[in-house]
Amino acid sequence: MTLTLERGDLILNSNYIAGRWCEAADGATLTVSNPADMQLIAEVPDSSAEEARAAADAAHEAFAAWRATPAKRRGELLKRWHALVMAHQEDLGRLISLEQGKPLVEGQGEVLYAASYIEWFAEEAPRIAGEMIAAPVAGRRMLAVKEPVGVVAVITPWNFPAAMIARKIAPALAAGCTVVAKPAEDTPLTSLALVRLAEEAGIPAGVINIVCASRGRTPEVVDAWLEDARVRKISFTGSTPVGKHLARASADTLKKLSLELGGNAPFIVFKDADLDAAVEGLMAAKFRNGGQTCVCPNRVYVQDAVLGAFADKLAVRVAALRVGPASDPASQIGPMINTRAVDKILVHIDDALTQGARLLVGGERVRADLGPNYVSPTLLADVAPAARLCHEETFGPVVPLLRFEAEEEAVAASNATPFGLASYFYSESVSRIHRVADALEAGIVGINEGAVASEAAPFGGIKESGYGREGSVHGLDDYQHIKYLCQGNLR
Q1: What whole-number distance in Å separates Cα of residue 273 and Cα of residue 336?
Q2: Main-chain dihedrals φ then ψ at residue 161, nearest 5 degrees
Q3: Are residue 269 and residue 245 in the same domain, yes or no?
Q4: Across-strand partners of 484?
Q5: Edge-first strand listing for the sheet containing 20-22
Q6: N or C: which end of the chain has fewer CB within 10 A?
Q7: pLDDT range class, residue 151, cuts 50, 70, 90
Q8: Helices (H), 151-204
Q9: What are the residues facing 459 on neighbouring strands?
Q10: Per the confidence metrics, is the pTM higher than 0.85?
Q11: Contact 87/139 with Cβ under 8 angstroms?
Q12: Any idea what the CATH number is for the domain that residue 362 is in?
């Protein structure tokens, strides 16, 4: 296995199992293309259940030694990994933009975001502590200690190929777990590059194992881990239907689960809001990564009294967004991940227009000179509550505006969804802030703030947006179980 450098980007094309870079046993490969122009970037292994089982074997064999490694030492190795990621920030940022399509400045920013999780959990590793319990009778000592759950299967999405794998692997390693990972088929290269840097940092063979697989072969890879009783936890970010399948299929072996699933985030603008701040917050929350994030506002509710002024301010900002490939430094909105994504976005826009919405900005495919994956940033007014935009995760740069009159109406509409990942609202009223924050049904609430993610905060949802938390000390707890020790006869 060789590490090559193309156009300044780290390009690897092999699985990593038991400390070795290797191909699929049957030689099958899948192609990775640049969504900006559909040009081939690389071919990686299209793995099967055979590679999945080999990865689980390696992780299981490495677990005993890794869990016995002092927590301080695990933290030191994670710090070395963090330093290498930061040293390769420019190359990794270009690689993210190349395979995922986001503008280069966002690719560089994602590297910093990914690195923040590695650093955070490197520092948390030596702070893992249990508790001494006051015994109810004399002559007894009672302790609760935290232990790693074991082998963890990590399954990551394509929209943040560096951040998602770092956010899952770093706490697993800090807790003393070993890992088998499968990155999304559209964006495996960034994950492979990060694992290569972990190897260089000195993470022992078998502690991290990563296998690539196409959409067609992913089920057999994941099923191999679901059926393996040695795999004690699954951490998955993706769609709610897949998350439900993983929950059902994990029942036979009672695996621990962290599921960060679909979202349908509301964004509420009250009449007492700072409208300029609300516009800035919405632009940051909605148009990052071209709207392809799970916490993007999907429904924007604006109070009657300020709807016109807010729409005018927002239309100016949305119309000014520059669409283009990451290779153009002026680009602010890159391509969508594939043509299926563009088709879905356009169907949602057409459905809203059919139900009476007014098109204020955008609403069409653009940059046909470059390829089929570009769609214009879009702003729609007078969107009907029944529109698909309000019930399905659009995952694109489309803002639907809906009007409301009373606070209770906005809160009820915001909660009228099976999802509960993120919610946002803007208000200058202290009493309203407390009421609405308490009433919104979501795992994350942005209050006069559009950028909510942080390595120091617990990230995750409620209802059909999943369970478990990533980031913060709670994210570390999800990779541990508690053992109660009771010692008697101490007289």
Answers
A1: 32
A2: -65, -25
A3: no
A4: 144
A5: 20-22, 15-17, 208-210, 178-182, 151-155, 231-237, 256-260, 466-467
A6: C
A7: very high
A8: 163-175, 188-201
A9: 470
A10: yes
A11: no
A12: 3.40.309.10
User: Are 90 and 215 within one domain?
Assistant: yes
- Count of structural domains, the chain: 2
CA-wise closest residue to 446 among 427, 462, 474? 427
Nearest residue to 255 via CA among 468, 472, 485: 468
Question: Among all chains, which residue has been given the structure tokens 């929209």?
Answer: 159
Q: Are residues 138 and 275 in the same domain?
A: no
Domain region containing 322:
265-454
Residues 116 and 163 in one domain: yes
Evaluate if residue 8 carries a pLDDT over 80. Answer: no
CB environment 103-117: b (16+ within 10 A), e (fewer): bbebbbbbbebbbbb
Beta bridge partner(s), residue 155: 182, 236
Decide if 192 is inside a domain.
yes
Residue that has been written with the tokens 């690689």 in this structure: 95
Residues forming beta bridges with residue 4, ordered by sequence position: 11
Share of the chain above pLDDT 90, in %: 96
Q: Is residue 236 in a domain? A: yes
The whole-number pLDDT of residue 6 equals 44
Measured CA to CA, the distance from residue 79 to residue 456 in angstroms comes to 17
53 and 71 belong to one structural domain: yes
CA 199 vs CA 21, 121, 388, 437: distances in Å: 11, 17, 45, 43
Q: How many helices (H) and strands (E) does the chain have?
A: 14, 24
pLDDT in tens, 337-353: 999 999 999 999 999 99
Model confidence at 379, in pLDDT bands (50, 70, 90)? very high
Extended strands (E) in 238-325: 256-260, 265-269, 297-303
Identify whether 260 is a catalytic site residue: yes
Smallest CA-to-CA distance from 25 within 54, 51, 58 is with 51
User: What's residue 127's pLDDT?
Assistant: 96
Summarised one tens digit per residue, pLDDT across range 63-107 is: 999 999 999 999 999 999 999 999 999 999 999 999 999 999 999
* Whether pLDDT at 7 is above 70: no
In this structure, is the dihedral angle defined by the CA atoms of residues 383, 384, 390 and 392, taken in order, positive or negative? negative
> Which residues touch 331 (CB under 8 Å, ≥6 apart)?
103, 104, 322, 323, 324, 325
Same domain? 253 vs 378: no
Q: Alpha carbon of 105 to those of 100, 218, 254, 334: distances in Å?
A: 13, 31, 42, 11
Location of structure tokens 């509710």: 301
Kindly name the residue from 51, 199, 260, 455 that is annotated as catalytic: 260
Residues near 249 by beta carbon (within 8 Å), at least 6 away in sequence? 223, 226
Query: Which amino acid is residue 355, in one-letter code?
Result: Q
> Are residues 342 and 378 in contact, defined by beta-carbon separation less than 8 angstroms?
no
